[in-house]
Design a protein that fits this description.
heterodimer; A: 212 residues; mainly alpha; Methane Monooxygenase Hydroxylase, Chain G, domain 1; 6 helices; B: 256 residues; Rossmann fold; 6-stranded mixed sheet; globular
């Protein structure tokens, strides 16, 4: 029997999907802004971050309300627990997008365009692919997909380390403004963090589906 | 379920005693129409006594004594001398802790109230019986055995039959005194679903010992302790962020 308040769980799921889509879009726009020296895209990413913050608060409130008023158990409790944890991960992913957008704006203001794109493109493709998979494995309740995301994170970590090595060598050799080099290192790090959050989401979906 | 719903019951400075023992102290509250209001509190706090004041069930107790204040239902002071108590109870139906169907058929349980009002026309009675059983989410379960004894129904069905019977005289307000305390979780869920449906048409006041039930079914919650109304407000606020430390202690199980 479906109870009259079960639609509130459905609403919670919808909010979680929405915040995930927005976080992924914010990250994608911020990185595209970097790769194509497009300030407008970075501004859009910053605007999305505000919406993500508001959604995280709404998800927290709805979750606490459901726990307090509806006495949930079993998979319903897990869903709420996952909603709270996942929305926090997604809010942090939104913060990383904001940070990428801000650093891109700094670079563009200083240098006019982004010169050193190193491995950002390949790395971001992987990270946002992981984020998209994380949303899909939640939607489709796909355990195999969730487990595959955890593996992909290792490649993002490797690319970030490579970026750090290359960029710090370039910093030592001179040529490009050191501030730009450092900000590019930090952008690489932000993408690596976004992949970490996608991995966390995958782990949360595994917990939702298996209870472990 | 919004604050815009107008008050249907207005309680002002209401004091009630059993003989010399005061049971309710200076109660003030508005109950709004088409809302579910829960009364919670430990045994002996006065919540059932208060509930029984709304249809003057306490008149049946010799030592019951209204010491002061008033209860108005639809702007009429129900303790005025000229108020017809039978008429009042038609407007304010009641469902009790233990289901108490008459030892008659399912059909006759619903039709009883109408028959004593003088309604005998079968087509009218048939219509009301179906309407009330549908209203109590019972029609599909019993439509093929309306002439069987109500006592053969399950506990949960009997309780919903009592709700259907209360609906037959077209009340505005339904009082429920621990309506699920004798029911299993599935029957309880069905009654709660029914309460949720009924509030579209009726104002419901429910006394319950289950705080989870109060949290699930009601728009407003009132916490009583030692005959006093300690806190009354939106159920969300009472359970998520009560203002009175006694409410907090009670709902979180730290009381006593």
């Amino acid at each position: 029997m479906n109870r009259y308040f079960h639609h509130e769980l459905h609403d919670l799921r919808s909010m979680l999907i929405l915040i995930a889509e927005k976080a992924n879009e914010a990250g994608r726009l911020a990185v595209e802004g970097f790769l194509s020296s497009d300030l407008e895209k970075t501004q859009h990413a910053v605007k999305l971050d505000d919406e993500i913050d508001a959604l995280e608060i709404a998800i927290d409130r709805a979750s606490v309300r459901y726990i307090t008023l509806r006495s949930p158990v079993s998979s319903d409790v897990r869903l709420i627990f996952v909603a709270i944890k996942a929305s926090h991960d997604l809010e942090r992913a939104g913060d990383e997008a904001h940070s990428i957008a801000k650093r891109t704006r700094n670079i563009l203001t200083r240098d006019g365009s982004v010169q050193n794109k190193v491995e950002i493109e390949a790395m971001s493709k992987l990270a946002f692919g992981m984020m998209k998979d994380a949303i899909n494995c939640f939607l489709e309740e796909d355990l195999d997909l969730a487990e595959s995301i955890i593996e992909q994170d290792k490649e993002v970590d490797r690319l970030n380390k490579e970026n750090f090595k290359n960029l710090s060598m370039a910093l030592r050799d001179g040529g490009i403004d050191p501030a730009t080099q450092i900000e590019t290192i930090l952008i690489s790090k932000s993408i690596e963090r976004i992949a970490d959050h996608a991995k966390n989401l995958a782990e949360e979906v595994i917990y939702l589906l298996t209870g472990e | 379920m919004t604050d815009e719903n107008k008050p249907i019951i207005e309680i002002r400075n209401f004091d009630f005693a059993y003989g010399d023992a005061q049971a309710l102290f200076d109660i003030n509250m508005d109950i709004r129409e088409k809302e579910v209001t829960s009364f919670i509190g430990p045994s002996g706090c006065g919540k059932s006594t208060f509930l029984r004041c709304f249809n003057r069930m306490n008149d049946l107790i010799d030592i019951a004594n209204i010491k002061g204040g008033e209860i108005k239902i639809s702007d009429i002071n129900i303790y005025d001398k000229e108020v017809d108590v039978i008429e009042l109870r038609k407007h304010v139906g009641m469902v009790f802790q233990k289901s108490n169907p008459f030892p008659k058929s399912i059909y006759d349980n619903i039709a009883y109230g109408l028959r004593i009002q003088g309604i005998k026309q079968k087509s009218v009675l048939d219509g009301v019986v179906e309407e009330c059983l549908r209203g109590a989410a019972l029609w599909d379960e019993v439509k093929d055995r309306l002439n069987e004894s109500a006592l053969g129904m399950s506990g949960g069905q009997q309780q919903r039959l009592c709700i259907a019977r209360a609906l037959a005289v077209k009340p505005k307000i339904l009082l429920m005194d621990e309506p699920c305390s004798a029911l299993d979780p599935i029957a309880t869920a069905k009654v709660e679903e029914l309460i949720h449906q009924l509030k579209k048409q009726y104002t419901i006041i429910i006394v319950t010992h289950s705080m989870q039930q109060a949290a699930r079914v009601s728009d407003k919650t009132a916490f009583f302790y030692l005959g006093k109304l300690i806190e009354f407000g939106k159920t969300d606020d009472i359970f998520m962020n009560p203002t009175d430390p006694q409410t907090e202690a009670y709902i979180s199980g730290r009381f006593g």
